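Throughout our pipeline, every protein is held as a single compact record rather than as scattered files. The record that follows is passed on verbatim for readers who wish to inspect the format:
___
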Amino acid sequence: MGRPVHAAVICSVAVVAAMVVPSAAVATVPPVPETQILVSSDPVDETPHARDGEVRAFAQIGSMVYVGGSFTEIRQDPTAAWVSQRYLFGYDKTTGVISTTFLPVLDGAVSSLVAGPNDTLIVGGAFRNANGASRKNLVALDPSTGATVEGWVGRSDGGNVRDMALHGDWLYLAGAFNWVNGTSHAGLARLHASTGAIDPTFAINATVGRSGTSSYVWTIDVSPDGETLIAGGNFTDVNGLSRNQIALLDLSGTPSVLDWSTEKFVAPCGGQPAFSYLQAVRFGGDGSWFVVGTNGGSGWPAAYCDALVRFETAARGDGQLGTWVNYTGRDTITSVEVADNVIYLGGHFRWLNNPTAHRGGAGDGAIDRLGIAAVTPATGMPVNWNPRRSGGSSLPPGTSPWDSSVPVLWRGDDGLYFGHNSDGMGGEYHGRLGMFPRSGGRTITPKNPPTATSGNLYLGIGEGELARVPFDGTMIGSPTTVSQPNYTGAGATWGLSDRIYWAHTVAGTPTGSRIDISMFNGGTVGAPWEASGYNDWFDAGDLTGALFLDGRLYYTRSGADALYYRYFETDGNYLGATEFTLPTTGVDWSTVRGMAWVDGTIVYGSTDGNLRVVPFRPAVDPVVDGAESVLLAMASTELTWSTPQLFFAVQ
């Protein structure tokens, strides 16, 4: 059936760490960056506007987009009069024109929408009546008129519906209910989407709220293959098993609770033991991983408070840790979505990559992202997409420039829809809702070192001078000296396909050095420019060698016997705020001077002037074993391999 549907599309024709170290409980092999397709950062102008409350849900059927939430009025454009239409309306996605025939009447807020089978719109929320008749918290509507589909029997008798997910004919419900269709179900249930009839084989109950509070399930998602469900909310027990705020269910047969749990949602955030801080979950890609967004305030790293976290779906056992964690610095994430290999997140955060901000400010490495952002699934680092949740000077009188929540980000077939409780996005007025189109977006292709087995090693031999040394993977050739006047004050250097990054001594910078970029095609090193002002806290001059591979900057530091790494996102050139240590044996990293990645190996110089090579394929085995190191070249009067200025290029 493909990707499970939350607000489905039916076509009209058919350290205090920013990132936690991977452990045996997760996966020791790091994820590899893949091609990503970003939506435009400029919202379309056609979407209508709502006011009061917030937009919480979207669905699409044919050319119609349906919008649900707690709003009370809508209007076509900034100059139009407000029209009373509570909680649910529809509009044409191409023209933005609000439907005058879809006019449902609900007496409570809508929290979730699903485009159901047989031309139905399934609505979940906190209402007791729909169109003047009792329909507790759940109803199927005619998408043309808003009339109730009388033969659809689903009801959430014992409490509100907070979230829904559709896979095939299975409709999964999450909420604060204890009864569905007159049968006992706590927090979770499964219905036949075509009829609303309960599935009695789904007997999974999420109960026992934190510190004696009422339990509920706040957010769910189903994997694309329909075999795994994630549930997050205020519960500590799932079918008698300890599961604090999050659980994974096996749907491949009779539904059951999977052997997967984490302690990272047990400790309180903000000193509030009863506070449930897990806000959003979403599977990514083929369902092999998922992300979690949280709020909560202080409490990390003991708990994943105010953070975006990736987990691996296939991991099993207790004590699971995130593959990576991106902390906002004590600001809330309220929604997540994954589309075209990009993770989008919304909330009232101001920064990402911000683990050192203990009082809610911007710490070292903090990257400005006001309320909405996009990150890469491999590392969790932000990419260069920053529309900002702000209306600038374009907001009409009486509107709200900023508020606490983006309850929903939703991937439609034409773009990324957003619902929030304020009125500004991308420097424009977008009252409570809008859409970033796929049209006008761009593709991010991961950058990496050359994959060639042979080329040239470049070695700094003096100020503004490089030795060009042929290298075939096992032997070096005769060097040629090349003058490089743009390459002065240089330190550790790493090469990508068409450029080099290098530590550049620059007077007046906060640390006395910075990471610069120069284009390089094997001839002249181009004029340098600063990689990113967000990195000015980092002392690049302290590096004694560096290489980049698959979203990570690996490096050695002066006087330290370790191989370190930080995440590094080349789309924006942002450096991760947390330093990790790679497992290694048998290499004295304190003596390393210069490194390069060549065809699955680290080629490195040393204080003894010799050049060595050791296997390094982190996608297969992340551990570097010095016992496999091989001497490539001895120091000579012609070349001494003892400078951080070492990199590899094909040309």
Q: What stands out?
A: The longest strand covers residues 109-116.
